[in-house]
Amino acid sequence: MNKNIVLVGFMGTGKTTIGRRVASRLGLDFYDTDEYIKRCENMPVADVITKKGIKYFEGAQRFAVTNICENKNVLIATGGSTLSDERNRALLSENGILVWLRAKPETIYENTKNSHNKRLEISGKSVNEISQILAQREKDYSGCDITVDVDGSRNIDVVVETVIEKIKPLMN
Which positions bind Mg(2+) (predicted)? Predict the structure, then answer.
């Protein structure tokens, strides 16, 4: 394989979980931008944002993307807002297949309703409010090479298989 696989999408779409499984199945090293930031800062991403501010977090996110993109033939799971930054998008696209894990607001709500302390942007938000935030972000994801829907009762193994099937033709 000559390219990285980059999973993007809104928070709660399963980028980390699906990414670990796809990487394992394909024998690739796995990187997660939020985990990278957490290791560098010695605190969860939510704490970085709360204690140091959103601008600092955006800089940390750029740092993570820049360093992770030095690797080749890896799978990268990104934070939900990573592609909002044009520099991040350019770096990830340069040698990567961008895979949008797309979900409806209802799915995101269900997947995140018990982890609001880690997901400050949607903490306490209704499905309608999540829908509005998602609508603003969709422009960031719409230019991806592949889109995989992760809604409803789709079994995670089915989603993993779908990602693998869709990326294989683009891997060389």
Answer: 16
